[in-house]
Known about the structure:
Layout: H1 2-10, H2 15-26, E1 51-54, H3 62-93, H4 104-119, H5 131-141, E2 144-150, H6 157-165, H7 168-177, E3 178-184, H8 188-197, E4 204-211, E5 214-222, H9 227-321, E6 333-339, E7 345-351, H10 356-365, E8 373-377, E9 382-383, E10 406-413
Parallel strand pairs: 1-5, 2-3, 6-10
Antiparallel strand pairs: 2-4, 4-5, 6-7, 8-9, 8-10
Amino acid sequence: MDQCRHTLEQHNWNIEAAVQDRLNEQEGVPSVFNPPPSRPLQVNTADHRIYSYVVSRPQPRGLLGWGYYLIMLPFRFTYYTILDIFRFALRFIRPDPRNRVTDPVGDIVSFMHSFEEKYGRAHPVFYLGTYSQALNDAKRELRFLLVYLHGDDHQDSDEFCRNTLCAPEVISLINTRMLFWACSTNKPEGYRVSQALRENTYPFLAMIMLKDRRMTVVGRLEGLIQPDDLINQLTFIMDANQTYLVSERLEREERNQTQVLRQQQDEAYLASLRADQEKERKKREERERKRRKEEEVQQQKLAEERRRRNLQEEKERKLECLPPEPSPDDPESVKIIFKLPNDSRVERRFHFSQSLTVIHDFLFSLKESPEKFQIEANFPRRVLPCLPSEEWPNPPTLQEAGLSHTEVLFVQDLTDE
Length: 417
């Protein structure tokens, strides 16, 4: 609400002008309250091919007409001379306020209201925006722009507005075939445009269009022109320059097609590039996966080698630590036959006083024995506690385990459990 109120206050609470200015901003045209740095209006007025049509005031007719003209001539000359001297002197006292444009849209709206109060609401549709915005819209839409500069002090302005500009056929032509921008030269915005277009007399009309990629004045109509004559002149100017608009439309369509084609090519290239990047990414990921897998396999091989080496070293250490085998004549010796998981048999003598751990160490030191195993007796069937446990912190001796002088023990493989 604060933004809306601020915008309306900028436009003196004129909702039509505020809406037009906001729409122009949305179309990319700078707001009149945030204008670009002041610079000359970019309109080509120096083309020697500009069509110019000037309507001179009718000459006096008859003796009475010439007599009236000669009598009024000194008074008219004196009036305009004094007025020009007064304006010239006033410039030194007070700068011309028209040189400072502060509210261009307000100037347009004020002129439109005064025009409607004086001549009625039947008139061509006024462009509610600045002159620069009208140029931009005409350029973007590839339309003719008719500019009317109103001289409030000129004697022919009133008749032109009332009888020519408000004629139904003139209104129809202007509304259907061109944009119409108008302002009084007494307003700063109108005065700025008059300096750019350099009119000679009033009423003044200028036809502007996009020609050779520049906004160019292609026709100037000056003086009191009648409705039919105005329609003929405007039609002639438009017909004479229509080919430029057609050519510009074709060029713009070609540029748009080229731009669309380039955009499609860029999109196709980007899609192809993304596909290639995705393929390359997948290849990198596959290479990385293979590398990691090879590293894993290598690590597993190294770990297996280390494990086997450690196991072999442990077997050798256990073998070195085994007590010597008792002689067969030793009454305290025990002959044990071991049946291994691979159906092979191993025989060795042990002493009754030796711990069951010695039996386990002996079997562990054998190459054909599994890494993990347990030793079982058949009669009665039981597992011998060869290693320390909670139940047997210190494994029993062969005698305590109830072994006889000759025993057959079974080695069960526990490696996969």
